[in-house]
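Researcher: Structure for this, please.
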Amino acid sequence: YTKIGDMVHFSLWIKTTAVSGTTSNGVEITGLPFTAYNATNYFGATTFVYMVKLDTDVGTGGFVQTRLDANTNKLRIFRAQDDSTTVALLAGACDSNDCRIIVGGSYKTG
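Model: Predicted structure, token format:
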């Protein structure tokens, strides 16, 4: 990551070696270096660059997105179909010991 003033720019390369615990929990990437700005309706700008062996189940017209909520230091991963409501991508979607994700983004700190 790089921090310039109150802006953080980051990129992550993640590879799972095992999936354990409750696979019905939403997928979260925790441990970003700073807590995001705390304001109503603030979300950091994030994007997936690469995903492999992640069962997104979105179908035609669907997409996966990440979100960095205000006053947190974690990314949450969601899936959506066309313009329907987004739902959390569940940990069971990473059903392989070789799931790989590259994600990057920028966010303002508090």
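Researcher: Any notable elements?
Model: The two ends are 17 Å apart (CA to CA). Strands lie at 2-4, 7-15, 28-30, 43-52, 62-69, 74-81, 87-88, 100-108.
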